[in-house]
Amino acid sequence: xxxxxxxxxxxxxxxxxxxxxxxxxxxxxxxxxxxxxxxxxxxxxxxxxxxxxxxxxxxxxxxxxxxxxxxxxxxxxxxxxxxxxxxxxxxxxxxxxxxxxxxxxxxxxxxxxxxxxxxxxxxxxxxxxxxxxxxxxxxxx
Length: 141
Ligand code: HEC
Ligand code: HEC
Known about the structure:
single chain; mainly alpha; Flavocytochrome C3, Chain A, domain 2; 3 helices; binds heme C
């Protein structure tokens, strides 16, 4: 009795294993099988681009042309304003935050940066010299 249960269990395990092996291999965007231990993604260096980046359309938040690792934004401090506020930009030779950042949602002018513009990196992003993970083309028909 015990022996036949063991045999049945072994059979079930073997069947499950063969089913697993037969399953189609799925691979990640980086080309690894999802079951592989892939290499950790390298931390790409943030680009410093004197003169800044061109914008692609008129209302685009300009991309950040410098590293931002040392500037934090929280309830008490905003590292970006140390260089970009109307009071500090001249001394730091930085562009001052746009006038649009001083209006609340009702169009009323605010004395300080409008709360909806406080978290700068919500809209402005630094850039790294990373290649796209996958080709960016229109699918052919
Ligand atoms: C130590 C001073 C300093 C700090 C702090 C700083 N920046 Fe800058 N930032 C600059 C300078 C200087 C430039 C101009 C660089 C150039 O054009 O060569 C610049 C450029 C920019 C631009 C490009 C503007 C444009 O019109 O192209 C953006 C956006 C920007 N910074 C956002 C930020 C954000 C967001 C933070 C906080 C996470 C931040 N910066 C912190 C000095 C600073
Ligand atoms: C909700 C999105 C948003 C947030 C949040 C935001 N910005 Fe902007 N920013 C923009 C857009 C859009 C523009 C370009 C259009 C304009 O002038 O309003 C811009 C323009 C700028 C410019 C370029 C000004 C110029 O004259 O070329 C600087 C510098 C800047 N922002 C800094 C900041 C800083 C610093 C913060 C945080 C205190 C911040 N922004 C938060 C959307 C945002």
